[in-house]
Amino acid sequence: MEIGDDHGGMCFATGCTVGKGNLRKAGWGRLGLTLIEKASNRAVRIRYKPILQPRIVESAFMKKRGMGIMPDEIPETEQTELVDLVWNVPEAGIMTIEEIFQ
């Protein structure tokens, strides 16, 4: 995990954890991770392409979050708009998945 300490989102998204030893912290300050299969010691590196970042920042949802409005107080249509923005982009459009290595 390249983004530093205390970022649990990768664990929720992948099921990998630092405690299990299949996710390691690097603290490089960027959104990327290396997932490790302990039995074979194979791994794959995945990193985020910040292509959508400007659109995410400008979304109504993020503007309201920046004002301190809690997510459940933001209209569902504005929540869905942001989710759809990310959900509808092809995988290759938002992340790089490198070759499996040992």
Query: Order of strands side by side in the largest beta sheet?
Result: 1-2-3
What are the low-pLDDT stretches, counting only 5+ consecutive residues below 50?
A: none
Radius of gyration from CA coordinates: 16 Å
Q: Which of globular, elongated, flat, extended, rod-shaped describes the shape? A: elongated
- Domains (count): 2
Series of H and E elements: HEEHHHHE
Helix content: 25-40%
Structural class: alpha+beta
Tell me the strand percentage band.
Answer: 15-25%
Major beta sheet summary:
3 strands, antiparallel
Terminal CA distance reads 17 Å
Tally of separate helices: 5
Overall mean confidence score, pLDDT: 83
How many β-strand stretches?
Answer: 3
Salient structural properties:
16% strand; 5 helices; 2 domains; 102 residues; alpha+beta; 3 strands; 34% helix; single chain
Write up what this structure looks like.
- This protein is of the alpha+beta class and 102 residues long.
- It has 2 domains: 1-48, no CATH class; 50-89, no CATH class.
- The protein is built from 5 helices and 3 strands; from the N terminus they run αββααααβ.
- The protein has helices at 9-14, 53-58, 60-66, 76-87, 91-94; strands at residues 32-37, 42-48, 95-97.
- The longest helix is centred in the C-terminal third of the chain and has 12 residues, at 76-87.
- The two termini are 17 Å apart.
